[in-house]
Design goal:
11 helices
Length: 434
């Protein structure tokens, strides 16, 4: 039991929980305001009814009546004072002492005033400073013990002994209930602290959930933007590797036509230009819809590469050879398309930049990997000094490497000025989905 609470020993403790503390406080405030009036009224009625039984004289009756009026007046005055001075204070201690004195004298006159005297148990913590609480409870126990033995003062040794025993029992009960109340109060405070901590944790959790929701929304936006950017890069690479190369081939054929010595040669190159235009148009449509290249529509990768190498050699006049090693397998569409595009780009680079006279293309099936190697005997270059993007906007080796990495592969380039070049792409062997 502490001075900060206003519970009687063991009376309110069970009701004092963090969840209902406000409502309990309101009820006990009402009790402390109106309880003395009610208990004093009950005591007065009981005393009046038992006056003859207690052999009260006329003077004692008048004294009891006067003290009862004084008790009502005291409570009325204190009700006004307590509004400005809540909690333990000197004024509250004086009020407690005066009220105890009235209760003691009234119970001396008639033991039924014990109903009023018991209020002292409930007001000690609320009114008295901590160091005086036990004294106040003891004084109240004295009054209650006197009433329990039939009134004060005890007459005879036996009643004095009974008074001592009853007082000891009351003091013991008060001490026990005070201890239980203190333990319950401590438990209630710990519970309130736990609930407060849970509320703070819940608030922090809710804040984290709100932040996670905002982060999730942000990630969705970023993922959408990344998807858009990836699709743009894919289309850009497809356009560069199909339409741009096709147009380059068409221009080359038309240039030959312009300088053709006779009509038959011109017609041959015009037919090649028309075929390139049709092929490029088909590739453009398939790129927009993210479909496999035309060459893979009705053939596997080895056949498509063989045709691509042969067409390129015929168009450029450069000697080219295609070789397959290992046991050929039907590859996943994405793997086949990636390796075909890398081969097309490497051949285009050999024709435009390397000025090679011979090119070799090798497709190797090696257990869980597929390797594509393109070698030429051109003028070569320094890979460390090569820019990732050309001045004309080409994607070059960077685009080829990006294609390989997109399917968890890699691309390496070996070259020296005047020593030709070798491009090697290695990707996981992922079989065709049946």
């Amino acid at each position: 039991m502490t001075a900060e609470t206003d519970k009687a020993p063991g009376i309110e403790a069970g009701a004092w929980t963090a969840g209902g503390s406000a409502a309990v406080e309101e009820r006990w405030a009402a009790f402390h305001r109106w309880g003395p009036y009610i208990l004093l009224s009950i005591s007065a009625v009981a005393a009046a009814g038992s006056a003859d039984m207690e052999s009260m004289t006329t003077g004692e009756r008048y004294a009891a009546a006067a003290l009862t009026v004084a008790g009502f007046a005291l409570q009325l005055v204190w009700g006004r004072v307590a509004r400005d001075r809540p909690g333990p204070s000197t004024a509250a201690a004086v009020y407690y002492a005066v009220r105890w004195t009235l209760a003691y004298v009234l119970s001396w006159l008639n033991p039924f005033f014990a109903f009023y005297a018991v209020i002292g148990y409930y007001g000690a913590n609320r009114l008295l400073p901590r160091r005086y609480v036990k004294a106040g409870l003891f004084a109240t126990a004295v009054t209650i013990s006197g009433c329990q033995i039939g009134g004060m003062p005890p007459h005879g040794l036996l009643l004095w002994l009974a008074f001592g025993v009853v007082l000891g029992v009351n003091v013991g009960l008060v001490g026990l209930l005070s201890r239980l109340a203190a333990q319950e109060d401590e438990r209630s405070r710990a519970q309130a602290a736990t609930i407060a901590e849970l509320e703070r944790t819940n608030a922090a959790l809710q804040q984290a959930l709100d932040e996670n929701a905002a982060l999730h929304a942000q990630l969705l936006v970023q993922a959408r933007e990344a998807g858009v950017a990836d699709e743009r890069r894919r289309l850009a690479a497809e356009i560069h590797d199909t339409i741009a190369q096709g147009l380059t081939g068409i221009i080359a054929q038309l240039q030959v036509v312009a300088n053709a010595p006779d009509l038959a040669v011109a017609r041959t190159h015009l037919e090649r230009a028309a075929a390139l235009a049709r092929h490029s148009l088909g590739e453009a449509r398939r790129s927009v819809h993210n479909l496999a290249p035309v060459d893979l529509e009705h053939a596997g990768l080895p056949e498509a590469l063989k045709k691509t190498v042969a067409d390129w050699a015929e168009r450029t006049g450069v000697g080219a050879q295609f070789t397959v090693t290992g046991t050929a397998e039907q590859l996943h569409d994405e793997v086949s398309a990636t390796l075909l595009r890398i081969a097309q780009k490497a051949l285009s680079n050999a024709a435009r930049h390397a000025f090679a006279t011979r090119v070799g293309v090798t497709l190797s099936f090696m257990g869980d990997e597929v390797s594509l190697d393109i070698r030429d005997d051109g003028r070569g270059f320094d890979p460390l000094r090569l820019a990732e993007r050309t001045g004309t906007g080409g994607f070059g080796l960077a685009g080829m490497r990006a294609r390989a990495e997109r399917i968890a592969g890699s691309l390496t380039v070996e070259s020296e000025p005047g020593q030709g070049a070798a491009v090697s792409a290695r990707v996981p062997l992922v079989r065709h989905e049946r």
